[in-house]
Amino acid sequence: MAATPDDVRTLALAFPETTERPAWDMACLRVRDKVFASMPPDESWVAIRLAEGENRALAGERPGVFSVPHHYRNSSMVVVDLAAVDRAELAELLTEAWRLRAPARLRAAFDTAGSPPSGGS
């Protein structure tokens, strides 16, 4: 089943110290004010920060699902078509993105206290 904008918010906001705040006409999800994901007003896709180079690798492997538009070419953001991914895959991507942006102590505390958001329904 396709992921939804509500899935993006529910999964992302389950991480410690995560907030949603608008910027650049986008709904930006942040950990300690560092953006790790953002959605446009139409909420048909989400841009997610990944490890360097992983964005282009995913876009090359599955171009109908992932893309790196011109305005993200100098970043590690990948655009994910929500209609083409399921909640479990979205959860994995958001977990990776949050971990990349969260401070080391927050990641360590999270690893000790809990587990990533569930991709299950």
Q: The CATH topology, please?
A: Aspartate Aminotransferase, domain 1
What is the highest CATH level, the class? Alpha Beta
Uncertain residue ranges: none
Q: What's the mean pLDDT score?
A: 94
Integer count of domains: 1
Strand order of the largest sheet: 1-2-3-4-6-5
What quaternary form is this?
Answer: single chain
Fraction of residues in β-strands: 15-25%
> What is the tally of helical segments?
4
Principal-axis shape equals globular
Structural class: alpha+beta
The largest β sheet comes out as: 6 strands, antiparallel
Kindly report how far apart the N and C termini lie: 10 Å
Give the helix level as a range of percent. Answer: 25-40%
Q: Any guess at the CATH architecture?
A: Alpha-Beta Complex
How does the SSE layout of this entry go?
Elements: H1 5-13, E1 18-23, E2 26-31, E3 34-39, E4 45-49, H2 54-61, E5 66-67, E6 77-81, H3 87-101, H4 104-113
Antiparallel strand pairs: 1-2, 2-3, 3-4, 4-6, 5-6
Helix pairs in contact: 1-3
How would you describe what is shown here?
This is MmcQ/YjbR family DNA-binding protein. This protein is of the alpha+beta class. It has a single domain (5-104), classed as Aspartate Aminotransferase, domain 1 (Alpha-Beta Complex), CATH 3.90.1150. It is built from 4 helices and 6 strands. It has helices at 5-13, 54-61, 87-101, 104-113, and strands at residues 18-23, 26-31, 34-39, 45-49, 66-67, 77-81. It has a 6-stranded antiparallel sheet. Helix 1 crosses helix 3 (87-101). The model has no long low-confidence stretch (mean pLDDT 94).
